[in-house]
Amino acid sequence: QVLLVESGGGLVQAGDSLRLSCAASGRTFINYAMGWFRQAPGKEREFVAAISWSGSDTYYASSVKGRFTISRGDAKNTVYLQMNSLKPEDTAVYYCAADTRFGRNLPFEYDAWGQGTQVTVSS
Fold first, then answer.
1. Dist CA 113 CA 47 (whole Å)
2. Residue 70 gets which letter from DSSP?
3. pLDDT tens by residue, 107-116
């Protein structure tokens, strides 16, 4: 069983930066790719970014490419999402998720989810 806990959300102004963290634990947390998703009120959960187990491969949604960076700690059990040049449309609850395969972007394909952290960007 994999347990994921996000942190780092908050209220910022447009143009600011924020870094989210996701701490993973569990005896079976080996060889998992990780992803970040977000869900705004009244909208479906959407893919943001993913990173392979090794950290050498990354994949971004077009809406965040060039502004967000996903990375992984050396111990592989912490994943970060550095968000720069934030826009009001980035406002959402952000979730991290674990997947046995890298490169997938549909929520149902992911095996474990965190509880989410709120990011609010004011204009």
1. 13
2. E
3. 999 999 999 9
Kindly indicate the confidence band of residue 76, based on its pLDDT and cuts at 50, 70 and 90. confident
- Return the amino acid letter for 17: S
**In this model, does residue 60 exceed pLDDT 80?**
yes
Pairing of strands 3-7, 10-13: unpaired
Residues 6+ apart with CB under 8 A from 30: none
Could you give the CA distance from residue 71 to residue 65 in angstroms, rounded to a whole number?
A: 14
Question: What is the predicted pLDDT for the residue at 114?
Answer: 97
Q: How far is CA 54 from CA 16, 44, 58, 77, in A?
A: 29, 29, 10, 11
